[in-house]
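Render non-specific serine/threonine protein kinase in 3D.
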Amino acid sequence: MGQSLCVCSRSAITIDSKRYYFIQKLDEGGFSYVDLVEGAQDGRFYALKRILCHDSEGRREAQAEVEMHHLFHHPNILSLSGHAFVERNGRNEAWLLLPYVSKGSLWSILEKLRDKSSFMPEGRILHIFCGICEGLKVIHDRGYAHRDLKPTNVLLEEDDRPLLMDLGSMNKARIEVRGSREAMTIQDWAAQRCTISYRAPELFSVESHCIIDEKTDIWSLGCVLYSMMMLEGPYDVVFQKGDSVALAVQNPVAIPQPCRYSEGLQTLLSSIMVTNPQERPDISWVLDQVRNLQGTDGGATDASRV
């Protein structure tokens, strides 16, 4: 990271013939870095995601992420402002320029609430969750699945409008598995790309002849709803204790009682988090239920600030 963009406080890069100034580091992962940059022309802040492409496969995956962004133009899916493939210090990198969302991720909001021993009001949960569902419906309607839906991959604008981000794990919604070799390939891919405590049960032990489809996202969506209600994912503690998440997801999700939320919201959660993917609802059904609950809630967003 030391030799990347932070040689000096005003080091600049060019993407699509426009200059951007480095401000500071934001995040760092296994194969990517995120920096805060400022547009020289418009003065706006952007998040620059730099993906290290170690080989042709890495470049292909980065190109696929760019293409996923170009497929979707929706208020609940993070847009791509520009991109470039560059060679820097002997390394190939893909640069994805994304709008900077200062409020941060849904997970950061949940952490703040937990630190304050607070909670998220039901109206606010429904408002955020509805936007997540609307973004996911667009993805599913185009025949794709997100595959790594979780609170850290949902950004929140100031008005609590959620933005689905990190489209790097997206692929075709329907995958036909033909034989044990294909099953193991998909299982290994899921182990690398789908966060364990939000991963659908069918991805832990992929059957030799089956269909993997967008219902994997519905399970993850349920985990996100649970996290908003309980301020932690349903399998976070299982994972942290070193117990088997693969075994834990085979049982119906347990909603801690007493629960402060309505019976309708609890029923929705239980309806989504069904172990058998064929028994899970599709995103249109989930969205209809959320809108019905918003109606009974009086339409309040209750978007209180943290």
